[in-house]
Amino acid sequence: MELGKHRADYLSWDEYFMGIALLSSLRSKDPSTQVGACIVDGDHKVVSIGYNGMPRGIDDETIPWGHGEGLDSKYLYVCHAEFNAILNTRNGEGLKGCTLYVTLFPCNECAKAIIQTGIKEIVFLDGKREGETIFEASEKLLKMAGVKLRQYQGRKPKITY
3-class secondary structure for 105-145? Predict the structure, then answer.
């Protein structure tokens, strides 16, 4: 092998970390929306991962997974991927200056946790849902806090299982 020659098709850092977020999303039991998150420090080390699911110790079969109303809505029970990734680090310790890779633009509640922990950048695969107040509020909060927002532009790693 010649010196200075490497394979041309290796994963970029963005592709690698978004691939981890995508793989994490496959752990979600949500039948309609699977979201994964990967938090990375400035040295390209994975600090934490998470996916959307029920809180620890809650039987997944006892909670509704639909888009119902009131107490029949999954949104009252599910922990989001970003929130889980933050909590998986001893409640957000050591996240200052990190980058969050996530498969769906964060909601306003996750945005507050992201800001409070000092995460400096968010790389998201799917954009915010236009016209939904929680995503508009999230973008506003994140911009006011100086968190850099960047939509993922790399190859979407294909994960087969």
Answer: CCCHHHHHHHHHHCCCEEEEEECCCCCCHHHHHHHHHHHHC
